[in-house]
Amino acid sequence: MNSDKQSNLFDMTPEPWEIDDESDFLVAQIAFSEPPFGPWDYLIPDELEATLLPGMRVAVPLGGQKERIGYCVRILGPGDPNRAQIDRRRLKPISRQIDPEPLIQRDLLPLADWISDYYLTPLGSVLETIVPTSVREQAGTREMVFLSLDENSSRDWNHLKLTDQQRRVLETLAGYTEALTQKELCELTLCTTAVISGLRRRGLIVAHQRRVQQRTHELRPEQPMQDLELNTEQKSALAAIEHALVAREDKTFLLLGITGSGKTEVYIRAIQQAVARGQQAIVLVPEISLTPQTRQRFRSRFERVAVLHSHQTAAERAWHWQSIAKGQVDVVIGARSAVFAPVPRLGLIVIDEEHDGSFKQDQQPRYHARDVALWRSKHQRIPLILGSATPSLESYQRGLGHEYQLLHLSKRALDFPLPQVSTIDMRADFSQGKAIQPISKKLRQEIRQAIEAGGQVILLLNRRGYATRVQCPACGEAIYCPDCSIPLTHHKEGSKLVCHYCDFQMPAPRDCPKCGFQAIRFSGLGTQKLEQYLQALFPDIPSARMDTDTMRKPGSHEAALAKFRSGETKLLMGTQMIAKGLDFPNVTLVGVVNADSALHFPDFRAAERTFGLVTQVAGRSGRGPKGGRVLVQTFSPEHPAIIAASRHDYVGFASYELNLREQGWYPPFGHLVRLIVRSEAVHLALQASETIAERLKQAQATLGLECKILGPAPAPVEKLRGKFRFHILLLAPRHAADSNTPRLQELVKQATENLKFPDEVAWIVDVDPMDLL
């Protein structure tokens, strides 16, 4: 710790607690989640030397005598070279210890250091992310009184005048290794509380309080299910993974399997091998909608499965977390943050649909769960499985370069063929002067035929709301969010306009707010409007909508999917949450209502996202003996992403897209860092971004780093939540960052050291950004 920095932070006036330097004192380094982040050095008082451990929270004096809660991240003893430079007389002692046990598993502390360094985030902020708020706040716990025998008293009670009930109480306590509550003791001995109170007054029983977690959910297994028969490709993939499990190799497998090829069965078999060896596994899924189905599959094969996701109550999440930490769980299933689960005997990590953008955190620390899993895999020497029908191009390139071992599943598990995919050119009706309908004549006919033949239909439209644009036909005025530079979306439910970025809402206007014209136009197509259109078109077909608006209540995903699985719902429409991982053998038709919704975004990943989404939703069709078809409505049928998706040709698309990426140093051939400067005043945001860009160029010259500095330029969404935004992109070829030359992180650190702007200006750094909007 830099003593000059610390002397500026603390008042160094000698206090009564200051003592002469000795050689056997211990120092704790404490990190805070808010400025000043630290870590800072504190003296461990004698009474805490035996109990304080890294990963615990402590209360410490900061800035005079103001008390702050921080995390103990490491302890420096007499033999530590970092402690040799610390003057004991300049340290303040820790006030008190908050946690009886470490909140953060010891193996996760080095991971927190890596995340802090790689993603340029203060260590305290990383630690706050690793431990859920519900766990820090002890949700679902309460203080309880526990009774035990006085350790200093003799167990020879013959010389004491005891009643039969009193003697039975003492003998019962003596027979238990753990303390009992008064209620438990009364039930075991059939005595009253008065008997126990008398023994406590005589000093034979002592009471102490402890906060305990209330049991909120059982880790109940589902109805047991037998292992499925593996085909040759599945057996080959499983054999490679099992070899790494036995050898404890930190090997990464990219399981590239077409939709319906049985990737989940390979995961389950591999986890069974890990559990049989006394180990545990983490399984990450991208969408909350996938969690119920994934949980059901795993609970039918494993007795102890915990689930972690954002729709749980605080008490549920804390209870599952504690069960995991105690080693009472075999498999942990969850979304992105489950990668931090405190599994004590971790043997395997699986990331299903590894390409999905939801694995990247969009707030500080902006980590990617795949890279965190890679770190845990290497440092805990365990295998990692990345599975997808459309892997990210970063992972696929690493597979081609043998950094990952590629495992191919080219056939569907039950030998059902992939569905036939056809495109519908939506430009045809326009060129003939016809009105463009949300559902083309061809798709309408196919929906009716599929339902009449006893099948089910899935329709994908990746746009929420009723109308995606509100515009006056008289003066051309479009209604934008006042805080964001994007149009407001019309939601018919509640008759309101909503911003899907900042959640600004306003009543839907009847008249143009600019010219007063009384026939304002609501155009564009969202899932609400699609639902209304389909209900009018097919009033006899039971349908349901799944999007963020309809799936807000706990259990809503399970209920909607259960109705579809049972056949009560015949037509399921929704956003991308219905595009991945769902397995319904009776789905014979999938329709993509607008394949171009994100194809032309100003983002180098736009084509990859479109290809992945169309391919994934197409894979929901034809998973049973009835077969299936896919119809893709598009205004860009000649686009390589659409053509490749219609052919189920991942390799062809990847080859085309990788060639474009390599020319511009974009990932996976380069490393990318994005800096965003925000301010309510556009001129302040611009000035600050220009200052950062200039300092980046100076740092580049000093470090000699081969990189491109693009910008500053207005962000594609220039205004967001009331702030104008300018961004700067840093690109470095991968070979440069992998050698002994400085990384882009060093460039950013040097350029932004001691960087100060007015309070009205904020800036962020996003390492390996997943979108550039």
Describe the 3D structure.
The protein has 773 residues and is an alpha/beta fold. Helices cover 31% and strands 22% of the residues. The chain contains 23 helices and 30 strands. Strands 11-12-10-13-14-9-15 form a seven-stranded parallel β-sheet, sandwiched between helices. Strand 3 (57-62) and strand 4 (66-76) form a beta hairpin. Helix 21 crosses helix 23 (744-752). The longest helix is centred in the C-terminal third of the chain and has 22 residues, at 682-703. The radius of gyration is 30 Å and the shape is globular. Residues 1-21 have low confidence and may be disordered.
Supply the key terms.
773 residues; alpha/beta; 6-stranded parallel beta sheet; globular; disordered N terminus
